[in-house]
Amino acid sequence: MEGNREKLQAEALYRRGNELRKQQQWADAINAYEQAAALDPQSPAVAAKQMLNDILAFRCNDYYNP
Fold first, then answer.
1. 32 vs 1, 25, 53, 58, 66, CA distance in Å?
2. 10 Å Cβ neighbour count for 12?
3. pLDDT digits (tens, 9 = 90+) for 46-58
4. Are 40 and 10 in contact (CB under 8 A)?
5. 63/45 Cα distance (integer angstroms)
6. What is the three-class DSSP state of 51?
7. Which of 19 and 3 is assigned the larger pLDDT?
8. What is the structure's pLDDT at 38?
9. Could you give the CA distance from residue 19 to residue 63 in angstroms, rounded to a whole number?
10. Is the pLDDT at 65 greater than 70, yes or no?
11. 48: closest CA among 10, 4, 6, 9?
12. Which of 4, 57, 62, 66 gives a 20 to 30 Å CA spacing to 42?
């Protein structure tokens, strides 16, 4: 029963991370994904966090801050 609750919490955190990502609140989205992954290592938040880290690493901030 405890594992099921953790999976539900992880799912909620994953969805929250997605909403934060859409709002371009990168740090908060990553934190939500990390919390979800800690609760459920099989959560799609693991891949989402990696994807967001890759995007932010690739992004050239000089183009957005002239």
1. 23, 11, 13, 21, 30
2. 14
3. 999 999 999 888 8
4. yes
5. 28
6. helix
7. 19
8. 96
9. 25
10. no
11. 10
12. 57
